[in-house]
Design a protein that fits this description.
single chain; alpha/beta; eight-stranded parallel beta barrel; 11 helices; about 250 residues; binds 2-phosphoglycolic acid
């Protein structure tokens, strides 16, 4: 059985105290349960301490970003081999906040994707339309283009053991999430796009939803056939709210 992949994306939030308290409580609460698929994406400087905290549990760690370069004179950057070295499992690629605030280009996203795959870590390719694009009815076209960037350059097989996170830009950090029925339609479209190239991969690939997920809307989202997990920002910053979402998985 495939368990929904739930990822807490802490973005630029928290401190040493927050990380320790949050993860201690999470590990304690999940202690007796083995059947879950949960990852934490802390800020870079807390990756190492997070990895230590979750030792001996099934919780895994996700990096929020990686540099395009593998090594060398790139002050302030972190490479994929460094992330691998400390035990990171997933890497977010092309999150809209990086596309917007760091002008991340398709070329960089492609390069990062390649580096993550080559190092046997799991890329989480973030895709999704802006409000303007949504208003122009371009959601499917945008999602298709963002997925096709990978397929046309690397072939469909690279999507084996990968995650796609559909995160409509307008729904991120908002009070209102996208409607679960609309999300399901887009997820179905994403899966059928992949299935045009490879049926097996389309069934196996994890398609997460992200954008103002909270403990009130998580259940309906997770009940949809093509929503295989959630990428959670704001609601993952409060351990009690996050645990309420995890509790839904049991029901
Ligand atoms: P949000 O963020 O849950 O705060 O909307 C989700 C994300 O950007 O991954």
């Amino acid at each position: 059985m495939k368990f929904p992949l739930i990822i807490a994306n802490w973005k630029l939030n928290g401190n040493k105290y927050f990380v320790n308290v949050f993860l201690k409580k999470l590990c304690y609460k999940l202690n007796k349960k083995k059947l879950y698929n949960i990852a934490i994406a802390p800020p870079l400087v807390y990756l190492h301490t997070s990895i230590k905290e979750i030792k001996n549990t099934n919780i895994t760690i996700c990096a929020q970003n990686v540099d395009v370069n593998l090594s060398g004179a790139f002050t302030g950057d972190v490479s994929i081999s460094m992330l691998k070295d400390i035990g990171v499992k997933y890497v977010l690629i092309g999150h809209s906040e990086r596309r917007i605030y760091h002008n991340e280009t398709d070329f960089e996203i492609l390069k990062k994707f390649i580096n993550v795959k080559k190092n046997n870590l799991i890329p989480i390719l973030c895709i999704g339309e802006t409000l303007e694009e949504k208003k122009k009815n371009k959601t499917k076209e945008i999602c298709f283009n963002q997925i096709n960037l990978i397929i046309k350059n690397l072939g469909i097989k690279v999507f084996k053991n990968c995650v796609i996170a559909y995160e409509p830009v307008w729904a991120i950090g908002n009070k209102v999430s996208a409607n679960f029925k609309d999300v399901q339609k887009i997820h179905k479209f994403i899966r059928s796009t992949i299935s045009l190239y490879d049926k097996k991969i389309s069934k196996q690939i994890i398609i997460q939803y992200g954008g103002s997920v909270n403990y009130k809307n998580a259940k309906e989202l997770l009940m949809q056939q093509d929503i295989d997990g959630l990428l959670i920002g704001n609601s993952s910053l409060n351990i009690n709210n996050f645990l309420k979402i995890i509790k839904i998985l049991k029901n």
